[in-house]
Amino acid sequence: MPILVHIIEWIEDKPKFWQEAVNRIIRNNDLTDGDINDLVNICKSENGISDLEFDVVDIEELKALVENSDSEETVTLSKICNTENINALKEGEELEFAPNGLTVIYGDNGSGKSSYVSVLKHICNTRGIRPTINSNLFVENSDQKQQVAELEYNTESGSSGSVVWKDNHLNDRILQVVDVFDTQSANHYIEDEDEIAFIPSGLIVLEKLAQCCKKVEERINTDKGTLIASSFDFSFLIGEYETEVSKFLQTLSNKTKIEELKTHTNHTEESEARIKELGTSIIKLKAKDPKKVIEDNNKKIRRFNSLKDRYRAVETGFTEKTLTDSKTIINTFFSASEISKTASEKAFSNLPIENVGNEYWKTLWESARKFYNHSVGDTIFPNTDENSNCPLCLQDLGDDAKERFNNFETFVKADLQQQLDVASTKLEEWKNYYANLDFDFTEYTPTIDEIEELIEGFTVKQASFINALNTEQKKILKLYETPKIIEVIEIPEFESTPITVIETLVKTLQEENIKLSKASVEEELKLLESEFRNLSAIKELQKYEKQITDEINRKRSIESLKKCTSQCRTTNITICSNGITDTYITSNLKENFKAELRKLGFKNINVVANTKGAKGKQYHYLQLDTSYGVNISLKDILSEGEHRCISLATFFSELSISEHKSAIIFDDPVSSLDHRWRDKISKRIIEESQERQVIVFTHDITFLMRLQEFANKQDCDIEIKSLTRKKTETGILAKNPPWDALPVKARVGVLNAEFQTLEKIENTETEEVYREKVKLMYGLMRETWERLVEELLLNGTIQRFGREVQTLRLKKVIDLTEEDYQKIKANMSKCSTMFSGHDSAGELIQSLPDTEEVNADLEILKAYAVELKKRRN
């Protein structure tokens, strides 16, 4: 077998699991789930994932095996049996097939024919989508019951067996060499590309190898998906800063060595002690960090200066300048007050009331001025002219009154009074200033405490300072409250005030900052922190050493599984398949396709068949001859008959390149076609049935007659079966083939059986039942006489359902006599009188023939048929 030898030689340098797959396919014809599991493990072992030990295929031994093997065996079908819950098929019914020639199963619509075909399409090979097999709707809870069908077969070597279809699963796929052709198959050939169904067993090996690779890849991808989903997220170990551990983890891959991981997890007691030591050193060094110290010092300076400014704000009122100003203000006010008092006594002496000239009086005087000026419209106030009046009491002013008025106005307008007013205002302002001095430093307590930590005794000193200022405040306020001439004002003296202490402290900090700005510990700190982070990272990584080890192994396994899946690519299988196809198949396929088109009489359009490989399989497709110069889909231009013709040509051309003659099945192959295509297809099917077992299902009686006709012409074995149904059961085998398809001899056989039934009815049933049976009997006898005229009397020159008049058969129709005519006329007339299609007269019912008379009429028919056959022969 050159193809298998070719494949075995080709497989020698391919992956080991390919070799094992081919070995098992050749030896066992298929691969089980267990085989696929073994091949997955071999593939993994070959790529270092498992330690599985396996025997490498002996290529030479396998080659010797196939060189001595026979071609693929021919398989024929025996029967469909043991059906359970298959649509409405009758359970226990057996549909048998003739082992040779043609078996035709005829059935009207709804007789169960399609149900049997559905079973065959699920067990055997077919194009397109397999039909759904429903449960029996006439049986309660049928959807919860199992569905079963069994198809028995024989092989040319003499073995036999059966394939069981159960709940959409097969126990064996041996019957995939048997192909079913129907309307869907025809559509599939024209509209879609599909894998070649009939090819030498060697090429089937490649197809199964490709399927195997796909299954192995699917299972490996499942394992790979599981590994990918179980990854360990170690990003939390990388951290914010770069360490040796972070660099190691960022480059972690399938190539990482476990020994390398060990170098990054070697945390010891010594390194733990070093981590603690480094932590302490870093804290101390950070405390000495010039930048940080300068920053802290500047913050202190700002806080200290704020406190200093607060001290200075209260101290200002007790400086030499401020106290000297206070002395001047108090003395000025006292002097102005004394001078004003003397002038007032002069202006307001000898008056009848006291306190004239004080502030209340001045207010009254100014109000009188405003009233007078507004009422009189004059600006001269007081008016002391002749006949003038008092602006308050409106009485005439005497000379004394006029003099007093003038003295009052002179006092009010004197500079001394204005000076007193200014001195009084200033006195009041400074008095308020001293009264409002705030000596509460509670809000500065934290800063005072901070300075106390730096300069011992500062808290006591600042409290003494504040108390002294508070005492001085009281002294000054007393001077403002009882003004008098101050000869000397005492200036408080402090040895060292808080202000001078703070200034000294700030200066010291500023000097320290100047020195620190010239120093740096960054490099030292950087080294310590780097070592600390590295050691800490190693310590942390050590906790997860197992998880990281698993992660490295996981990555290695994923990479190895990727190598496994790369070995599952079918490109090389497709290339090999293409090469074998070109060498052994393609040219034959195309030539056979053309020959089949000629046999079927297809001449209108030039159609060519082409092939291509994909995923280890060989696909063929049909297209218009490129000489047409257009790109049009075949389905858009073909008639239904042309469509079916091309599909059948493709089907038969594939059969011609197979290495076996297994059975083929047709389901209504001429459905909806006219008589021209029906005759061509009938003839081709009969021709094929002389080479292999052919099974045809049809509901077309004309097609059935054509098959009979061509079978008789070519002396081909043909067995006809008929299906019938009951109300809730289908697929029931009728006792006889379709009546219309039976020749005279077969019909006579049916009449004999019917007569035996009639005899029983006459003896056991009522006259009414007997009458109906007699009518049926004579109806069948009349139709048999009609068939006798077509088949024997006229020698088949003209036949019902026939497509032509066969004039050559008239050569034997030369012996007819008046006796023949009278015999036929008399017997057909009697049958016409008796059968159910005629409404018999009353007297005829009374003279209903008994079985003896019926038998006599039947014997006349049988004898005349024998006589005519002898005469024609």
UniProtKB/TrEMBL annotation:
<dbReference type="GO" id="GO:0000731">
    <property type="term" value="P:DNA synthesis involved in DNA repair"/>
</dbReference>
<dbReference type="InterPro" id="IPR027417">
    <property type="entry name" value="P-loop_NTPase"/>
</dbReference>
<dbReference type="InterPro" id="IPR026866">
    <property type="entry name" value="CR006_AAA"/>
</dbReference>
<protein>
    <submittedName>
        <fullName>Wobble nucleotide-excising tRNase</fullName>
    </submittedName>
</protein>
<feature type="coiled-coil region">
    <location>
        <begin position="511"/>
        <end position="561"/>
    </location>
</feature>
<keyword id="KW-0175">Coiled coil</keyword>
<dbReference type="Pfam" id="PF13166">
    <property type="entry name" value="AAA_13"/>
</dbReference>
<dbReference type="GO" id="GO:0006302">
    <property type="term" value="P:double-strand break repair"/>
</dbReference>
<feature type="domain" description="Protein CR006 P-loop">
    <location>
        <begin position="104"/>
        <end position="712"/>
    </location>
</feature>
